[in-house]
Amino acid sequence: MKQALIFQGGWEGHEPEKVADILTGILKEEHFDVNVTDTLETLEKDDLTAYDLIVPNWTQGSIKREQLQPLLDTVASGTGLAGLHGGLGDSFRMATDYQFMVGGQWVAHPGNDGVTYQVHINDPDHPLTEGMEDFTVTSEQYYMHVDPVVNVHATTRFPVAEGPHASNGAIDIPVVWSKYWGKGKVYYCSLGHVADVVKKPEVMTLMRKGMTWAAK
Prior knowledge:
Number of helices: 7
Radius of gyration: 16 Å
Structural class: alpha/beta
Number of domains: 1
Order of helices and strands: EHEHEHEHHEEEEEEEHH
Helix content: 25-40%
CATH architecture: 3-Layer(aba) Sandwich
CATH topology: Rossmann fold
């Protein structure tokens, strides 16, 4: 049986415990044994290489170097990393090495919660999005700073006033991407502001595909 670690905490507005419970349920359905922790000390005390997958679910906060370095090294050695929304894309704002590993960082969500927008599936033949179609969600629409090396699998369109990169007055921002950090697979989905959004069938499907894909 594969082993997964979820570390949950940080800003309570993202309902980290409830979201961790949902992700745990998905992983157990996929035959993972899941360890859920609410302390970052686990990262410095556990043998992280024993895990096939690590799922950060920790918005904002700070991380010590002796906690971050084992995580960076473990993913580089082949353990997968997967997560969603601020739990992976807005963790540890001062830890730029962490952001480099993830492949991006949250910048803004214009209109805050309650924005209705479309998620466009870029490559429906890829294992991460296979069989999926474009869908609409009402939640926060994440504007991300993104590493240009990531593989983008889904996008959302933001209106812009002008500029050389605008297409019909809009610009596409990644919603789902994948990349490698050393030998480890990294998966990110910007959806999932609260547990009810994570429960949306399309988000559940994306996280199921993403977590199982990333696991070594």
